[in-house]
Design brief:
The protein is α/β, with parallel strands linked by helices. It contains 12 helices and 17 strands. The chain is 36% helix and 18% strand. The chain binds pyridoxal-5'-phosphate (PLP).
Length: 396
């Protein structure tokens, strides 16, 4: 471990691997000792275009020379440009910009509660899910399921009802005759919860139920959105449209950005003074979003994510799927989980030693979320590095 790989003055909020990364190129990064890694994590589904992308970096450099930040006292044309790009692709109408995923979800929860209160529902309730992760602010950690995230901070926000994923009967029973429900909020693929997808039929049933009851369907696409699954947004595999969708991680290819995309009644709930953000929608972040979408389309990265994702998943199935102790290889596009029969957090460090960046989510699921520019040769390399690691780990 070098001096660069310690942080005595930074709060100890993360269990860090003792390496410090210095630069990147494409799907590779190098640490301060010059060691090379293949990046199969992309900063947790953030670096959509990998590192030092030849089209993104010059565009951001040009933006730096024009404006980094202004204020929402004034119009920001790039906000309108990015909002138009997002709403066209989502089939929705309006966007609020912020800087992170939790902020987008916090705003979505505010929309749902105000939507209810405006209708005369004094104590609005939102349906959320077992294993859900929506962030670490008070509202979003209250919507989150994991006790490690929720516990130790005193009273949480009330007004959440929790049900199990993919169980429509349970949802009906939990909400039966309850006049206070205003929304259902879920991740179309639960990311931190272990890469568990909501089934297509379930999403369609919930959409229909929300329509029948006048509830908002809020989809947290912070991790699964922005082309990662091979569609712009993961819910598009089910052919539905939410009322509110939240985005962040991959939207700016590494520049902090979040967005609430809405339509119908949800699009106009928040009025002047109800919500805002100093950094939200600043020109640098907006340019990163606009260029990310432009480059993804120019370079066909959504179709590519489907193809190389299928290839990576099938190779993982072939080379890891049959190992005793590997329970399942699952995922869509380039959001792939390999579930083991035991906690495997140690693999994050072991993989880094072997030159591979990945993460483990929900204790037992290896998460791969590489940049969408991953080549099939790099996919082969991921499998070649991962298989012996998992084999040795499971045999120990
Ligand atoms: C990462 C994540 C969040 C929180 O995003 P931050 O930018 O860390 O606040 C919320 N929801 C989902 C599904 C996520 O994956």
């Amino acid at each position: 471990m070098t001096v660069a790989a310690t942080s005595p003055h930074v709060m100890p909020t993360y269990g860090r691997i003792p390496i410090a990364l210095e630069r990147g190129q494409g799907c590779r990064v190098w640490d301060t000792d010059g060691k090379e890694y293949l990046d199969a994590l992309a900063g947790i589904a953030v670096n959509t275009l990998g590192h030092n992308h030849p089209k993104l970096v010059p565009a951001l450099q040009e933006q730096l020379t024009k404006l980094i930040h202004t204020s929402n006292y004034y119009h920001v044309p790039l906000q309108e440009q990015l909002a138009a790009l997002l709403t066209e692709r989502a089939g929705m109408t309006n966007v609020f910009f912020c800087s992170t995923g939790l902020e987008a979800n916090e705003g979505a929860i505010k929309i749902a509660r105000k939507y209810g209160i405006d209708k005369g529902i004094a104590q609005p309730q939102i349906v959320v899910y077992d294993h859900a992760f929506h962030g670490r602010s008070f509202a979003t950690m209250s919507a989150t399921a994991n006790p490690k995230v929720r516990n130790g901070f005193g009273a949480l926000l009330d007004g959440f009802i929790r049900v199990s994923p993919n169980d429509y009967t349970a949802l009906e029973e939990a909400t039966e005759g309850n006049p206070n429900i205003v929304a259902v909020m879920m991740e179309p693929i639960q990311g931190e919860g272990g890469l568990h997808p909501m089934r297509k039929e379930y999403l369609q049933q919930v959409r229909a139920l929300c329509d029948a009851k006048g509830w908002l369907l809020i989809l947290d696409e912070v991790q699964a959105g922005m082309g990662r699954t091979g569609k712009w947004f993961a819910h598009q595999w089910a052919g539905i449209t939410p009322d509110v969708m939240t985005l962040a991680k991959g939207l700016g290819s590494g520049v902090p950005i979040g967005a609430i995309v809405a339509h119908h009644a949800a699009a106009t709930v928040l009025q002047a003074g109800n919500h805002g953000s100093t950094f939200g929608g600043n020109p640098l972040a907006m340019r990163a979003g606009v260029e990310t979408i432009r480059i993804m389309e120019e370079d066909g990265l959504i179709a590519h994510a489907t193809e190389v994702g299928q290839y990576l998943k099938s190779q993982l199935q072939t080379h890891l799927g049959s190992l005793p102790g590997v329970l399942e290889v699952r995922g869509q596009g380039l959001l792939i989980g390999v579930e083991l029969n035991q906690p495997c957090g140690a693999l994050i460090g072991l993989a880094a030693e072997a030159g591979l960046l990945l993460s483990v989510t929900s204790d037992t699921v290896i998460r791969l979320a590489p940049p969408l520019i991953l080549t099939t040769a790099e996919a082969d390399e991921i499998v070649a590095r991962l298989r012996p690691l998992v084999e040795t780990f499971l045999a120990a």
